[in-house]
Amino acid sequence: xxxxxxxARLLIVDDEIDFRKAASQGLSRRGFDVSEAASGDECLQVxxxxxxxxxxxxxxxxxxxxxxxxxxxxxxxxxxxxIMLTGHGNYDTALAGIHLExxxxxxxxxxxxxxxxxxxxxxxxxIDNQMREPVIAELMAPADLYPKVYDDEPLTSLxxxxxxxxxxxxxxxxxxxxxxxxxVYNRAEEFQGMIRFSDLLKLLIPDALRDSPYxxxxxxxxxxxxxxxxxxxxxxxxxxxxxxxVDAPLMEAVHLMVDNKLINIPVVQQSRLMGxxxxxxxIIATARLxxxxx
Length: 294
Fold this sequence. Notes:
19% strand, Rossmann fold, elongated, CBS-domain, alpha/beta, 12 strands
């Protein structure tokens, strides 16, 4: 019985002969069955004759570009995994490739050893999902992870709630880490917004110092302010509520967080709080999409 493992068939499409030959030789030595094409037309001809397992497709080629070639590939085989190679990549090119369901987007110059490892990693995982953008519901933390306070409570209640949550031991199997924000509701149990650690820090600066370009500082200021700021209610600290719908594109949430300088953003559905999207989780997801092993 023949137990030899079948070699994965790769098609390298690139008009640069030096890169094409070097990549072909390097990948062949590492166990791949490699074919070559110098243009989009040649690529389509090869695919019509025998569909490869993976296509490595250069974006910028004379004649038919990589994106134009990819559109024709999709007419022949909708699910053929395509990795876009480019030394001229930009946001629009990457977005066009994603819409045409590429499995990855790699910048040149490419280290052959790293490319080989990357292809093996893609094959070991579900290659069809490599370029799928996560949705907000997948990334958000549960709302009840954050302490709950009411807007008519004094700020000292808020300070205690956040301090207790921050000092709370993190379960060994938890992926969420420490909490530095609190959920705020009114007495009708309607969600009013989030108050974050940074909002509390701002309260420690007296108004006279915050608004003056000639402020001077001395020992005792923090002690004095800590004795008086707690008389205010939580409602006075609330900013205008900034939320994102659970079904919104992830980029909308990122834009709102950047535009409003937020470390996290409430996720809602029909005004009901569903969870909290945190900047740290967006960064981790971005790293994974960029191919960084975590």
